[in-house]
Design goal:
The chain has 175 residues and is α+β, with helices and mostly antiparallel strands. The chain has one domain: START domain (Alpha-D-Glucose-1,6-Bisphosphate, Chain A, domain 4, 2-Layer Sandwich). The chain is 34% helix and 37% strand. The protein has a seven-stranded antiparallel sheet with strand order 1-7-6-5-4-3-2. The chain is elongated.
Length: 175
């Protein structure tokens, strides 16, 4: 009985220590330069419907069901989806727009686990008709997910998807 108690106390202490040292937040972003004027790039990236043309997740589940509410490209527009295990279920809402600067969205995931993240697409004029596009998202790691992040990297998990999406965006806009 005493040994079992020590094991239990040891496990509780281990979980507490891991919870204390675990990363509490994440911030992942990637960028690319696109040879198109900033206004053209911004008009394209602010559309939730057009994200299916360049975002990597529509390719991961071509049978995903999508629903749109509100006016696409404006604050309050919502894109919701239900897909396979790779894409899960959730919704994305435009929560802020600064014309030719940034589109801010909130991602709400329902499956495979509940979480919320803030996402953004930022554009910067590089001159000579070229635009830098930065796509990123950030959020908080809640317990017990925070402990899992000691052994997994959000950057490694999502970074390649961002790189692929931006590469596809560049291909589409530079045609």
């Amino acid at each position: 009985m005493t040994i079992l108690l020590y094991i239990l106390i040891g496990l509780v202490l281990l979980i507490l220590i891991l919870a204390i040292i675990a990363p509490k937040t994440y911030d992942v972003s990637r960028n690319i330069s696109i040879s198109r004027p900033i206004s053209e790039v911004f008009d394209y990236v602010k559309s939730l419907k057009k994200q299916d043309e360049w975002g990597p997740w529509a390719k991961k589940d071509p049978n995903m069901t999508k629903e749109f509410k509100g006016t696409d490209g404006e604050i309050g527009a919502i894109s919701s989806w239900k897909g396979n295990k790779e894409v899960g279920e959730g919704e994305q809402e435009i929560i802020g727009i600064k014309e030719n600067e940034i589109v801010e969205t909130q991602l709400r995931f329902f499956k495979p686990w509940k979480s919320e993240s803030n996402a953004y697409i930022r554009v910067n004029d590089e001159g000579n008709g070229s635009t830098k596009v930065t796509w990123g998202f950030s959020g908080k790691n809640k317990f017990p997910m925070s402990i899992m992040m000691l052994f997994m990297s959000m950057d490694k998990m999502i970074g390649k998807d961002f790189e692929q999406g931006l590469s596809d965006l560049k291909s589409i806009l530079e045609k």
